[in-house]
Amino acid sequence: MTTPLRTVFINHGGGPCFFMPDGAMGPPGAWNSMASHLKALVPSVCPKKPAAVLVISAHWETEEPTVLSCANPPLLYDYYGFPPETYELKWPAPGDPALAARVRELLEAGGFKTGEDAKRGFDHGVFIPLKLSFPDADVPTVQLSLVVGLDPEKHLAMGRALAPLRGENVLIIGSGQSFHNMSGFFGGGFEEPAREFDRWLNETCVGVEPRQRSERLRNWTAAPSARAVHPREEHLAPLFVAAGAAEDEPGERVFADDVLNLAMSGFAFGATSECVAP
């Protein structure tokens, strides 16, 4: 039997940062380590491409969990004030209506009311990082929304409901940022809060028993510098879903670096897996 795929929480960068001239957003090389991690994402999680990808992005919130159900999603250039060429980026990955229906089925079995959207495109929390991870845009991809209110337990429960997808060769990606305070990105003075929160997050995701991890994530606002790092938690909530989908399994830090002098981390959850080629 194939080991279920691990889930992963990635940092998706700032707007279209990976597709701008080096030094255009911060010092030269500022985003290089993050880009390298995203380019190696599939080999680091499983040795072959998954059959499909489910992405929970920080940039879509709805009243109930909602899936993008169209067969050929457009791109939603939901970033502002960047060079014109960044609004011409392409990533024509197909959608997967059957997977979208399966996601709804699992969530509804877990007690959620769900919705679908056949018109919305992939936002930049999907196509910017996945353009690096899947440059050929050849893996069917479905996006799932966060739920308004960003309740940690609700998103952990979403992950628990979606866990069977891991055994169906679907890679679950939470796409956010472990540090997300715009004042910190552009104003400085957040280096120590970022380090404090990053230490707590690493201990939570890697250093405690899996069930303790869930309890700590439910109470993440008690972490050191929590609100300094996440004034609003939409960029942390995708991690809750990824962790919930492997709730009884270990975590591993798969990315760690200071980006713009701010400590950031990415994590995988679940036993090391070997996925089956589609």
UniProtKB/TrEMBL annotation:
The protein's GO terms of the molecular function aspect are: ferrous iron binding; oxidoreductase activity, acting on single donors with incorporation of molecular oxygen, incorporation of two atoms of oxygen; zinc ion binding
- Annotated Gene3D superfamilies: LigB-like (3.40.830.10)
Q: Which domain of life is it from?
A: Eukaryota
List the Pfam families.
LigB
Q: Which InterPro entries match?
A: Extradiol_dOase_DODA (IPR014436), Xdiol_dOase_suB (IPR004183)
UniProt keyword Signal present: no
Domain Extradiol ring-cleavage dioxygenase class III enzyme subunit B, by residue range, is 27-251
Swiss-Prot/TrEMBL keywords: Dioxygenase, Metal-binding, Oxidoreductase, Zinc
Kindly list the cofactors needed: Zn(2+)
Q: Key word Zinc present in the record?
A: yes
- Which family is this sequence assigned to? Belongs to the DODA-type extradiol aromatic ring-opening dioxygenase family.
Instruction: Specify the protein name.
Output: Catalytic LigB subunit OF aromatic ring-opening dioxygenase
| Origin species | Micromonas commoda (strain RCC299 / NOUM17 / CCMP2709)
Gene expressing this chain: LIGB
